[in-house]
């Protein structure tokens, strides 16, 4: 009989799959190393098990111990699988930008999950780096994994992923392309492949808001390059020790929008349901097309599974809210699709300013049309109320008619987006759309900005 003694024995030996439609503009053979076939559905299973086994071997991880790590989700899943089989507890620290699916999956396999803010400095005591490190120091009989600087991370890919790719391509691989986060995959695979054939090119895919590309090209760690980004699983605001820049030939950066769009393209055009970093990886590969010739064999690694992102990249509303969904937005009616089901919030002339403020808070809006029995007669904007408060502390008790400005312009639902945008300016913060039969909706700057690519 053929069977695995436990789930950990199924890690590795993932397939290479030829890409077709999505790379039809490219000449070389492009093969995807699809790591979702690992039991935890990601490439991180490999290094998670290796880190655990090495920690067991040298005594850092003791029987009945607690595994503690800061993770974007996938390393945590791999560690959790190892912990279940080997009898350890897990505490994982994750940032609030990670998908809810990742958090739920970690809890489903028995881990305690602590969520930290994304937009803080690495040294901040609230960052997931700092929190996970502190928990490692405070928790009895615990082991802080530190995947960023743990050499077992890169070693796993040197011993497993690299040899698999070499064998599967019969040694014909010419380029390896992969998203870079902790640096373990690109460094381990890159080291192995270059030892087999120094001519093989190793390309890293980075994201905007990350420091890798500029640091590799200039040796400068530029803090001005660091800012929040949406793409998950790649990019960093630190330089992990696992990133071996000496084996990397270059980087290309991919935008958040392109990463999300190409994640969806892989599912629809190739039938490969993978995650956000895979979208970055394939778009990065397309950006590098001039580096390849028709006789090349390009291997691009897909990190994790699309199930982690069904509430994000695979959700039309999420994509639309961020301007990532390419739609034909041509008229006013297109601009209100996201809130067509919500009634127009108004305030009457005789109501108090405090009532308008309460409504703005309740509905999280910044502009409100003012009405009386004859129809729309004015408008109020939060900036007006803000300035008015400093001029008169009793403004909240005044009637709206004393502070309102001119009513918002009214357009038909077929008015062009260009015409709508011309009507929104410093003096006029919104436009009303007449849908007929007394039904009106509001278009704000936010609605227009959302359709700008």
Provide a descriptive summary of the structure in words.
The protein has 453 residues and is α/β, with parallel strands linked by helices. It has helices at 44-57, 74-86, 100-108, 128-138, 151-168, 184-196, 212-218, 256-270, 276-287, 316-321, 332-335, 353-363, 382-391, 417-423, 445-449, and strands spanning 16-18, 29-34, 66-70, 89-95, 112-116, 142-144, 175-179, 201-207, 250-254, 297-302, 347-348, 367-372, 375-381, 410-412, 430-436, 439-444. Helix content is 34%, strand content 18%. The strands form four sheets. A six-stranded mixed β-sheet has the order 1-2-10-7-8-9, sandwiched between helices. It has a four-stranded parallel β-sheet with strand order 5-4-3-6, sandwiched between helices. Strands 11-12-13 form a three-stranded mixed β-sheet. Helix 1 (44-57) packs across helix 5, helix 5 crosses helix 6 and helix 8 packs across helix 9. The model has no long low-confidence stretch (mean pLDDT 92).
Q: What secondary-structure arrangement, pairings included, does this model have?
A:
Elements: E1 16-18, E2 29-34, H1 44-57, E3 66-70, H2 74-86, E4 89-95, H3 100-108, E5 112-116, H4 128-138, E6 142-144, H5 151-168, E7 175-179, H6 184-196, E8 201-207, H7 212-218, E9 250-254, H8 256-270, H9 276-287, E10 297-302, H10 316-321, H11 332-335, E11 347-348, H12 353-363, E12 367-372, E13 375-381, H13 382-391, E14 410-412, H14 417-423, E15 430-436, E16 439-444, H15 445-449
Parallel strand pairs: 2-10, 3-4, 3-6, 4-5, 7-8, 7-10, 8-9, 11-12, 14-15
Antiparallel strand pairs: 1-2, 12-13, 15-16
Helix pairs in contact: 1-2, 1-5, 5-6, 8-9
